[in-house]
Amino acid sequence: MATTTTNFLIGSHLPVNRIGLGTMRLTDAPGHNPAAAPIWTAPTDTENATTVLRTAVDLGVNLIDTADSYALGDSETFIADALHPYREGLVLATKVGVARPSPAEWIPLGRPEYLRQQAELSLRRLKVERLDLLQLHRVDPTVPLEDQIGALKQLVDEGKAAHIGLSEVGVEELEKARAITPIATVQNWYNLSHRDHEDVVDYAEKHGIAFIPFFPIAAGAATREEGPIADIAKELNVTRAQVALAWLLKRSPAIIPIPGTRDVKHLKDNIEAQNIDLTDDQFKRLEADA
């Protein structure tokens, strides 16, 4: 358990506020279960999606996360259309390494030539000369990890990416990758009710690596009208989702949640979670309920 801080240095020199914005929900109707959504086409309500992005930046969000596989690259294009030229200090994070042959398929594809191709396409779609954070979306078990990390390292060496991140990895994979090149971030599924990566969180904090939890709001726990989350939300006069985010922020100073939303009010609520200071007792009650 840590004292809540409001910023983190990615790769020791990119300062970001500790609530970012994930853009997966700004694609086709994720609904109530984003984990099962196709994420296949661009947003239909482009005006609203643009408003969400611009409002986020206006309110101080300076980490925006996307992927080449979100809406087959349309997510990256949409971000550029909405925000380019980018505000100074805005950090754009994208991911490569997943093929999308159909709406239901997310297939790890880590061949070096594919990773390079997708990174080059991301550069074009985002309208940048260098990607702030280039993440390996999934490790491809059919390709040596050294080859996958080596391909990303080459892009860094060429000045086409500033930092490398990994997604959905364990400590062993993280250590192997760090033996090849510095790793700035890890993005795993983690929240108050889904805590399979406790060891990765602790490892990341120890080594100065940002831990970016996707699906950071514990959907099931945060919707219950009874229990510690609901009780603490009432005590603090905040939403249950805000409590879930506040728990993450207190769990480790290395954690940078990236909640996604298509609703400006929810966006503002998410950002306000940075101002919630859970007591040690409240934190322990939430821990015990997980």
TrEMBL record:
Signal peptide: none annotated. Pfam families: Aldo_ket_red. Residues 18-288 form the NADP-dependent oxidoreductase domain. GO terms for cellular component: cytoplasm. One of its GO terms (molecular function) is oxidoreductase activity. Gene3D superfamilies: NADP-dependent oxidoreductase domain (3.20.20.100). SUPFAM superfamilies: NAD(P)-linked oxidoreductase. The keyword Oxidoreductase applies. Keywords: Oxidoreductase. PANTHER family: AFLATOXIN B1 ALDEHYDE REDUCTASE, ALDO-KETO REDUCTASE YAKC [NADP(+)]. This is Oxidoreductase. It comes from Actinorhabdospora filicis.
